[in-house]
């Protein structure tokens, strides 16, 4: 049975080491002291401790100075590190955009920078953001604490289901509409109507004090006024706000109305994802006046940013406006990045 010899405390103190040596340094010192105390036979020392001769000789050469710190592991950091290739102006441009749009990632920021004439690669934008976060020059915004959730679908036995062969191919062929609960303050609940065109990703937003069929019918008028193309079909869940006046308004306007089956929000996935985006990129980080006129002004500004400034990955990092402009020129817009 092998026993490991440990140097005495006075031998460690004799080395003049002020800080507490690491366990690895103590073990290596034990090799060397045992080697000296047992005749200086390297082969015997290596067999006793189960180490290779190459390892033993390397640490013996390093310890010739007698400093215990020489037995500590050395840093493997390269002597020459890769230096940033971007300029201070480029870094500042990235940070300005990120502070303006704090939930947009490197891909979208690279598109916005290219529009400004600063052509930076996506990876370089990511490195600039990472360095700024490490140096605490870029801090993530604090969430406002707004709770947002969708209404649970309810059965609508009289509702029309979307036919399986109905496939939207043009803007306006299918617009999904949903409501979002906004709870910014205790006791205050507002309703946001969200509409998204599934082809162009064009969104329309409006806040209301209540989600009733009357307010939903009024939002339908807002939707038609703000969509830059005619709307031909609307899809909603089974909420009561999309019955009665809303359904009558759709019939009066000649709009096809598709209602989801119960417990199937995934079929309204486009607008569900839109609600998440608006929650994360607007409600959670934007200080708002929660009075309806002021809130709707802020929502209108965000809606304009969303439709005309924010690059969409699903559209090949184009905005919905750019997508529609390419479509109007007659060339089918590509969604490849």
Count all strands and give the number: 6
Termini, distance in Å?
66 Å
Sheet/helix structural class: alpha/beta
What is the rounded Rg? 33 Å
Average pLDDT? 86
Order of helical and strand elements: HHHHHHHEEEEHEHEHHH
Most strands sheet = 6 strands, mixed
**Portion in helices:** 40-55%
Q: Any idea what the shape is?
A: elongated
Number of helices, counting only DSSP H or I runs of 4 residues or more: 12
Proportion of beta-strand residues: 5-15%
Secondary structure layout:
Elements: H1 9-14, H2 23-37, H3 42-49, H4 53-62, H5 88-100, H6 106-115, H7 122-134, E1 147-150, E2 175-185, E3 188-197, E4 203-208, H8 213-226, E5 233-236, H9 245-253, E6 256-259, H10 269-283, H11 292-308, H12 320-328
Parallel strand pairs: 2-5, 5-6
Antiparallel strand pairs: 1-2, 2-3, 3-4
Observed structural traits:
337 residues; alpha/beta; 12 helices
Describe this structure in words.
The structure is a single chain. Strands 1, 2, 3, 4, 5 and 6 form a 6-stranded mixed β-sheet that branches. This protein has 12 helices and 6 strands. The chain is elongated, with a radius of gyration of 33 Å. The chain is 41% helix and 12% strand. Residues 1-17 have low confidence and may be disordered. It has helices spanning 9-14, 23-37, 42-49, 53-62, 88-100, 106-115, 122-134, 213-226, 245-253, 269-283, 292-308, 320-328, and strands spanning 147-150, 175-185, 188-197, 203-208, 233-236, 256-259. α8 (213-226) runs parallel beside α9. 27% of the residues are buried. The protein is of the alpha/beta class and 337 residues long.
